[in-house]
Structures
1.
Amino acid sequence: MLHRDLVERRRWLSERRYLHALNYCMLLPGPEAPQLATYLGWLMHGVPGGLIAGGLFLAPSVLVLLALSSVYAIWGQLPLLAAVFAVLKPAVLSIVLVAAWRLGKRTLHSPLLIGLAVAALLALALLRLPYPLVVIGAALVGEGAQPGAGGVLAQQGEELIGGGAVDACLRRGSGRLSAGH
């Protein structure tokens, strides 16, 4: 939903900048969606924007989880409610799988990237390698795959500058959006 609203509908960010921010948020511990919302709020309106965006992003889910946990604690042993919660598990799984599929379609454009994604999945799920080790290994493979071009990381600066209001502000050096955007 963040992607659709910020990149496609409002065009506040380019696809490249959004994926760049998402990649950084995925490296941090914890859920990346609130981190991404907080980062984008900070990027557009400084510290107050980050605090407000992060707080308002989390508020609905906190309220829903509080309500569901209260209902479960009070009436969780009832067969009807147990069945409802059992049905929610595959629904949540399907939401996660659809999100992963959409992200994969936007980011895995070459056999190397698909191979890295599969290798990372196998390393994490089957070999139980530590996440930082998998990330470092993927970064090294990505850097090594660009001989003579200075590697992927050396090209990021130019590739991240794209269309969008946030990108225009960053090129100007303001770090904030004006009212016209």
2.
Amino acid sequence: MLEELYVERAGQDNYVGNIYKGVVVNLEPSIQAAFVDFGVGRNGFLHVSDIEPQYFRQGGYDPAKALGPASSSRPPRRDSESAVGDEFSDGAEERFAASEDSSEPSVQRPAAIQAADPGILRRGDEVLVQVIKEGIGTKGPTLSTYISIPGRYLVLMPALGRVGVSRKIEDEAIRRRLRDIMLELNPPKGVGFIVRTAGSDRTKRELSRDMAYLLRLWKVIARRN
């Protein structure tokens, strides 16, 4: 049974994937969300599950306590797993490349936190957001502070903090080769990368160029924020 149908018309503006610097204009505790003016005429919807922990810190909130035991991180990783993971799907890739798998990368997110808690967001706060879903009818676009920037072969995700390989790349030998390449490229601490399916047969040099391009792009965005 068809539950939802989305139609994109050429005459309408498409904001999905765009990144904006927005301002919190309203808080709704009942739905654990904030509404953000990001300059397109309609305020965007930002749910608490899409608010990155860095915004808790800016309000004096303790993200470790906020996450709580119910949503704590996975068990401690072995040293060999500290920089590379396999548990990622191409969620960022599908968002921009219209792939068949709609699952999201595994980023640790808060579960039971009120977006209207003054320790997280206040009216007038500035947030860097990305449009993840177009508005429907009178509803504004859905936003997230978990930024994903797709390249040709990689996806940069600043909030991820580690690197991974698309689940769609099933051949273990290829996955091992990509893991080794990503370790050798040694991306900067604090940013994450996912190897897209398009990068499965690419060389270290090609992946390095894509990584350098994405890092330059992210630096430009960060400077403008």
